[in-house]
């Protein structure tokens, strides 16, 4: 039968997108016994984003799922939960009591896939390059606590931080801190196109057509030296135009694994129907969805309008009508399962109330109905996104206080437009860079934030974020984290909606799915096997 397996949080994070593309998806069976993974993501090299796979630019779970297989980092997140452990490094740690000096020693004999040695100078080059390029994706903000990087000999790298940062080891496990060869990645410009080179567990061959990635073939790197055990020789990733086509390919045994994104209907069918050759694995979720606001534009420039929307939106109804048991209402940017979470929005607004929303608008002198457009991406967060926005539109318009339209665009158009501030209201999702409350707050609220939002709060940026990062014991950071969440509920620069579980469907002979994702939602292809223990 279809065996629905619940994987506990201690074992696994959540499923993330794998590759993004479109192309020949009739069958992935073109490489012998390679494990074939399907996805519905789109991934494009465009004028606005010409270097999608450069570690100094890439900032999405889809691109990171390619980079994590190929570009090595000093640290790596372990199976299940827990602090990051050395990967390209043989050891790393703070060397002072104030968490402001961090030292790593590289493993002996590391080489890039082309045979060039990996040295401490390459690590410094890679980190300094990402910081100096400061790509508009916002990914370099993960490195903004670094002051200087120095090398001591061929194998030791020392990071001097501007301020204490207990989360720094996590940041060194993210692809922006990936080690690249100076011969392949210029210091003063991004590497355009789809070429990827590194010292990770795989090399990758990428097929592209019309500036879209069509297929990615990952081949085990025979010269890889690191902490990871690679359980397969080859993985092929294939993109599909729809969740339905991807599901049919799995049923026909044309592919082995479905990654992101299945529709709610598919998940319900797979979890309830009988069969004997497909596993459905349910994974605890750290994915969140939210509305973002350009707080300097249009009707949402008024805080009262954003607060009124927060007062009207019925998360329970939204989740039940669109996602069912696959998601749950979220009342903060920080998911309920993460240390430091606070139900800040429920504490401030309580149950949905049109009367309270009307009072907020009247007090601010706002005429109703307020006209606005909710923008969403049609091809990045799954096939249910349109239905979700239709439900949001209905809730707002049924209040009589808003006249909302909705408009969907492909991610390749949507994301650059959002970064340029062209949308007043827009829907986004977030998969954490690492599983800490800081990473659900700082990327949205700090300088050079992920959304390129004009919203700025001096207390958050100058006091609360640094204060929370000084606490190595994350429970001790609860006061600062709660204060930030309360401020977000008051000012509403973003409006959290829901957090969701994730799902993997795989043929019965595929092993390792319980460890195929780390706790920050990123795919780990090396864990997958065929008929062998992972």
Task: Walk me through this protein's architecture.
By secondary structure, this protein is of the alpha+beta class. Helices cover about 25% and strands about 25% of the residues. It contains 14 helices and 20 strands. Strands 1, 2, 9, 10, 11, 12, 13, 14, 15, 16, 17 and 18 form a twelve-stranded mixed beta sheet that branches. It has a four-stranded antiparallel beta sheet with strand order 5-6-8-7, covered by helices on one side. A hairpin with a 6-residue loop joins strand 5 and strand 6 (about 100-105). The relative contact order is 0.18. InterPro entries: Peptide/Ni-bd, SBP_5, SBP_5_dom. Belongs to the bacterial solute-binding protein 5 family. It is found in: Cell envelope.
Q: How would you classify the helix and strand content by structural class? A: alpha+beta
Shape: globular
Radius of gyration: 23 Å
- The percentage of residues in β strands lies in 15-25%
Taking the alpha carbons of the first and last residues, their distance comes to: 22 Å
Query: Largest beta sheet, briefly?
Result: 12 strands, mixed
Note poorly predicted spans. 1-27
Please give the number of β-strands. Answer: 20
Q: What is the typical, i.e. mean, pLDDT? A: 90
Q: Work out the helicity level.
A: 10-25%
How many helices in DSSP terms?
14
């Amino acid at each position: 039968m279809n065996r629905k397996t619940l994987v506990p949080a201690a074992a696994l994070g959540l499923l993330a997108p794998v590759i993004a593309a479109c192309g020949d998806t009739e069958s992935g069976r073109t490489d012998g016994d390679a494990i074939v993974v399907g996805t519905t993501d789109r991934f494009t090299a465009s004028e606005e984003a010409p270097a999608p796979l450069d570690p100094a630019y890439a900032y999405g779970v889809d691109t990171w799922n390619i980079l994590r297989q190929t570009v090595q980092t000093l640290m790596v997140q372990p199976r299940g939960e827990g602090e990051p452990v050395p990967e390209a490094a043989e050891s790393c740690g703070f060397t002072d009591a104030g968490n402001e000096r961090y030292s790593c020693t590289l493993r002996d004999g590391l080489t890039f896939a082309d045979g060039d040695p990996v040295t401490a100078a390459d690590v410094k080059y890679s980190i300094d390059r990402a910081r100096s390029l400061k790509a508009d994706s916002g990914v370099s903000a993960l490195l903004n606590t670094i002051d200087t990087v120095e090398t001591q000999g061929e194998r030791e790298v020392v990071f001097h931080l501007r301020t204490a940062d207990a989360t720094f080891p996590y940041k060194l496990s993210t692809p922006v801190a990936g080690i690249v060869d100076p011969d392949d990645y210029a210091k003063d410009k991004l590497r355009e196109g789809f070429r990827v080179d590194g010292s990770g567990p795989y090399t990758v061959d990428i097929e592209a057509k019309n500036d879209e990635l069509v297929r990615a073939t990952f081949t085990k790197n025979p010269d890889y030296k690191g902490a990871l055990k690679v359980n397969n020789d080859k993985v092929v990733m294939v993109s599909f135009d729809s969740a339905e086509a991807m599901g049919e390919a799995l049923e026909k045994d044309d592919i082995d694994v479905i990654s992101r994104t299945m529709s709610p209907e598919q998940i319900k069918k797979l979890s309830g129907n009988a069969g004997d050759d497909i596993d459905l694995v349910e994974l605890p979720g750290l994915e969140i969805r939210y509305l973002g606001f350009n707080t300097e534009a249009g009707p949402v420039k008024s805080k009262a309008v954003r607060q009124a929307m927060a007062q009207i939106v019925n998360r329970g109804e939204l989740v039940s009508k669109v996602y069912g048991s696959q998601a749950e209402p979220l009342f903060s940017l920080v998911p309920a399962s993460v240390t430091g979470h606070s139900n800040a929005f429920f504490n401030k607004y309580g149950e949905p109330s049109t009367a309270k929303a009307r009072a907020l608008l009247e007090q601010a002198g706002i005429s109703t109905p307020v006209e606005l457009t909710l923008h969403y991406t049609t091809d990045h967060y799954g096939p249910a996104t349109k239905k979700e926005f239709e439900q949001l539109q209905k809730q707002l318009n049924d209040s009589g206080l808003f006249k909302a339209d909705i408009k969907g665009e492909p991610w390749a158009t949507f994301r650059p437009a959002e970064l340029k501030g062209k949308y007043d209201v827009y829907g986004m999702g977030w998969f954490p860079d690492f599983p800490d409350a800081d990473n659900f707050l700082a990327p949205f609220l700090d300088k050079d934030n992920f959304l390129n939002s004009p919203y700025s709060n001096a207390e958050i940026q100058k006091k609360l974020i640094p204060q929370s990062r000084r606490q190595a014991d994350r429970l001790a950071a609860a006061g600062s984290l709660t204060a930030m969440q309360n401020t977000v509920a008051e000012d509403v620069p973003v409006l959290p909606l829901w957090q969701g579980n994730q799902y993997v469907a795989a043929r019965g002979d595929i092993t390792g799915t319980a460890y195929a994702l780390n706790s920050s939602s990123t795919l780990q292809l090396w864990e997958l096997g065929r008929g062998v223990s992972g």
